[in-house]
TrEMBL record:
UniProt-listed PANTHER family: COBALT-PRECORRIN-2 C(20)-METHYLTRANSFERASE (PTHR43467:SF2)
Cited InterPro entries: 4pyrrol_Mease (IPR000878), 4pyrrol_Methylase_sf (IPR035996), 4pyrrole_Mease_sub1 (IPR014777), 4pyrrole_Mease_sub2 (IPR014776), CbiE (IPR012818)
Known EC number: 5.4.1.-
Protein name in the entry: Precorrin-8X methylmutase
Annotated coiled-coil segments of the chain: none
One example of a Gene Ontology biological process annotation: methylation
Keywords from the UniProt entry: Cobalamin biosynthesis, Isomerase, Methyltransferase, S-adenosyl-L-methionine, Transferase
Domain of life: Archaea
Residues annotated as domain Tetrapyrrole methylase: 2-191
Residue ranges of the TM segments: none
């Protein structure tokens, strides 16, 4: 279930009702800690143990309602996480619903004054081997790029490296912790990011201006 970006007012009424109803609430600590869950059983997920935790939660959902919370909208950039939940639900024959939320991608589009149809959206916020040549293919489409970097301090720099390696030096708008109280928006040229010792939030979105 998506619980919106950082601003607590961006959660949907449906999500609030589900949280209130469920006795078991699970999710990454950074997500779950945003809510008052007194009186509920809280399960903090972690990357190391999620392959065990998710099936355990799904099996418990046979007897009790379980809510698994996720930042923003789970279908925007957490498709691998949602896929594991779906797979477990099918394996144990448990009914499930993916409840959409308000993604920080929407906040990013508002800030750069673009519509989703005007950009190519990409995410590197995934587990496994990453293929940065996907940037090359997206550039060929002739639209600006909206990219979720790898969730590390060097994620933005990896994008800049690819762009400069292609002989480009576009403007990059780096948006960090969108809709949180400490939201930051900064404009750089790609080469500037490579030349400066910058570390960015693991919750960033990058707009690459190519047009």
């Amino acid at each position: 279930m998506g619980v919106g970006a950082g601003d607590p007012e961006l959660i949907t009424l449906k999500a609030l009702k589900i949280i209130e109803k469920c006795k078991i609430v699970a999710g990454w600590q950074s997500v779950v800690s945003r809510f008052n869950l007194s009186g509920k059983e809280v399960v903090y997920l972690n990357y190391k143990d999620q392959d065990r935790q998710i099936p355990d939660l799904v099996k418990r959902a046979r007897e009790q309602d379980v809510a698994i919370l996720d930042h923003g909208d789970p279908s925007v950039s957490d498709f691998q996480f949602v896929g594991r939940i779906r797979e477990s639900c099918r394996q144990f024959d448990v009914k499930y619903e993916v409840v959409p939320g308000i993604s920080s991608v929407l906040r990013a589009l508002a800030l750069v004054e673009k519509d989703l149809s005007q950009v190519v959206f990409m995410t590197f916020h995934i587990r496994g081997e990453l293929d940065y040549t996907e940037i090359d293919k997206s550039i060929a489409l002739g639209r600006d790029l909206l990219i979720i970097p790898e969730p590390y301090s060097y994620g933005v720099k990896k994008i800049a490296e690819r762009l400069v390696g292609l002989g480009l030096n576009p403007e990059m708008v780096v948006m960090e912790r969108l809709s949180f109280s400490d939201e930051k928006v900064n404009h750089f040229m790609a080469k500037e990011i490579l030349d400066m010792d910058l570390k960015f939030s693991d919750m960033s979105i990058v707009y690459v201006k190519l047009s």
